[in-house]
Amino acid sequence: MSAITVTRLSKSFGAVRAVDDLSFTVGPGTITAFLGPNGAGKTTTLRMILGLVTPDSGSAAIGGGPYRDLVDPVAAVGAVLEAAAFHPGLTARAHLEILRTAAGLAPERVDHVLDQVDLTGAADRRAGGFSLGMRQRLALATALLGDPAVLILDEPANGLDPAGAHWLRGFLRAYALQGRTVLVSTHVLAEIQQIADHVIIISDGRAVFTGPLAPGSDLEELYLEATR
Ligand SMILES: Nc1ncnc2c1ncn2[C@@H]1O[C@H](COP(=O)(O)OP(=O)(O)OP(=O)(O)O)[C@@H](O)[C@H]1O
């Protein structure tokens, strides 16, 4: 079964057709790059997959069903959509603790995800003083709290320093190797090329390329060709 299935999804905002009869599947255990020019409809698609935007037509499913029907949503999917806003006065640990309690997860999950994103040393610092990269790590930690089978990330390397970006690639690779699914929207082709095994490219809300990324193939060339 596909981890994510998008079927003939369409969404307009006024006269703007943001997503236009879009279909694709994301296989389990893969890292899929979700690419397209500015305004192509990537974020709108991700928001529809996550039940945050209602499609005009079509459907999106995670693990076989729509988001709203998931029995255990935090275990099914974790997402980092935009640079998340954190309360500046709360520590990283406090943010995670609030979410953990709300989701009814085990107490040890907080320390576990802090360790996963390498933020243990800053756990008791206020998020207001965090750098962009640290906020990205905290956002990723919130997405990981439920130990989800599917991870959906929008520009996750934004703000990470070179060592952080390297770390993130290793983290996502290891995540997929556990049989989990990663869908990453990004414009940084050189980064994602190193880890993605599948590619979905959309333009004007429609799929212009879907398929595996062969080792050694040039993603930038593929992208420029598909979006010309
Ligand atoms: N809430 C909204 N109201 C009006 N228009 C919207 C809304 N959300 C998205 N749009 C429009 O839909 C289109 C697709 O936007 P979307 O954010 O999905 O693109 P994207 O591929 O994520 O772009 P980027 O790479 O720049 O982040 C754009 O023309 C955008 O202006």
TrEMBL record:
<protein>
    <recommendedName>
        <fullName>ABC transporter domain-containing protein</fullName>
    </recommendedName>
</protein>
<feature type="domain" description="ABC transporter">
    <location>
        <begin position="4"/>
        <end position="224"/>
    </location>
</feature>
<dbReference type="InterPro" id="IPR017871">
    <property type="entry name" value="ABC_transporter-like_CS"/>
</dbReference>
<keyword id="KW-0067">ATP-binding</keyword>
<dbReference type="InterPro" id="IPR003439">
    <property type="entry name" value="ABC_transporter-like_ATP-bd"/>
</dbReference>
<dbReference type="InterPro" id="IPR003593">
    <property type="entry name" value="AAA+_ATPase"/>
</dbReference>
<dbReference type="GO" id="GO:0016887">
    <property type="term" value="F:ATP hydrolysis activity"/>
</dbReference>
<comment type="similarity">
    <text>Belongs to the ABC transporter superfamily.</text>
</comment>
<dbReference type="GO" id="GO:0005524">
    <property type="term" value="F:ATP binding"/>
</dbReference>
<keyword id="KW-0813">Transport</keyword>
<dbReference type="InterPro" id="IPR027417">
    <property type="entry name" value="P-loop_NTPase"/>
</dbReference>
<dbReference type="Pfam" id="PF00005">
    <property type="entry name" value="ABC_tran"/>
</dbReference>
<keyword id="KW-0547">Nucleotide-binding</keyword>
